[in-house]
Design a protein that fits this description.
single chain, alpha+beta, Heat Shock Protein 90, HATPase_dom, Sensor_HK_TwoCompSys, histidine kinase
Length: 106
């Protein structure tokens, strides 16, 4: 696993917790379902807010079990509670990616 962080301002405590839990759930999903050999976490900030992307080089959504649970739903709810969005799906070049966009709160 590797990561990159480009943050100029510290996010609120609520945003930090949501980001932490989303990364935690995403990496758990990579370990349990993806059959991946590599994962990447990218956290960046600009005037619009924070962007978090967790990607892997695994088998994509086809590797998920039918009883996989509610992880993506829970991550989506965390993002929406802060006014943000979460998308999750297969990458064009293989693997899976979770992307979170959270607006900057003044």
């Amino acid at each position: 696993m590797d990561y990159s962080v480009s943050i100029a301002r510290q996010p609120s405590a609520a945003m930090q917790l949501a980001l932490y839990r989303i990364v935690q759930e995403s990496l758990t999903n990579v370990l349990r379902h993806a059959q991946a050999t590599r994962a990447h976490v990218e956290l960046a900030q600009d005037d619009a807010g924070i962007r978090l992307a967790i990607s892997d080089n695994g088998a994509g959504a086809a590797a998920a079990r039918s009883d996989a649970g509610n992880g993506i739903l829970g991550m989506t709810e965390r993002a929406e509670l802060l006014g943000g969005t979460l998308t999750a799906g297969n990458r064009r070049d293989g693997g899976f990616q979770v992307t979170v966009l959270l607006p900057e709160v003044p």
